[in-house]
């Protein structure tokens, strides 16, 4: 899968979504793969969860919340591919990248 590096991608609201800093992306994926409390926060309020990791909330828009967050193993399986997406395209440009059973499918759908 080829992902173009951009300064940001448009969300469904038409606003730009800034890519995540690689350190923030790593921490996000670490916590989604291991920490049940963080996973609950992310499901309830993705913006707050990512902000807690140091991402500026004014640079991205949450398009949709996650109904069923992907299992820890699913995040671990596509970690590098998801990280590439997060640091090049933005955190909420494909809101269903965190949905159970859809992570890899949505990353590859371009």
From TrEMBL:
Composition-biased stretches (Low complexity): 1-17
InterPro entries: Mod_pep_NH_fam
Region (Disordered): 1-20
Taxonomy, superkingdom: Bacteria
UniProt-recorded name of the protein: Uncharacterized protein
Originating species: Novilysobacter luteus
């Amino acid at each position: 899968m080829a992902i173009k590096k951009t300064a940001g991608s448009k969300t469904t609201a038409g606003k730009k979504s800034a890519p995540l800093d690689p350190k923030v992306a790593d921490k996000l994926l670490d916590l989604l793969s291991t920490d049940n409390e963080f996973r609950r926060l992310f499901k309830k309020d993705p913006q707050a969860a990512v902000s807690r990791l140091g991402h500026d909330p004014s640079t991205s828009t949450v398009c949709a919340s996650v109904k069923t967050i992907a299992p820890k193993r699913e995040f671990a399986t596509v970690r590098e591919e998801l990280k590439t997406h997060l640091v090049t395209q933005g955190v909420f440009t494909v809101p269903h990248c965190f949905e159970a059973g859809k992570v890899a499918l949505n990353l590859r759908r371009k």
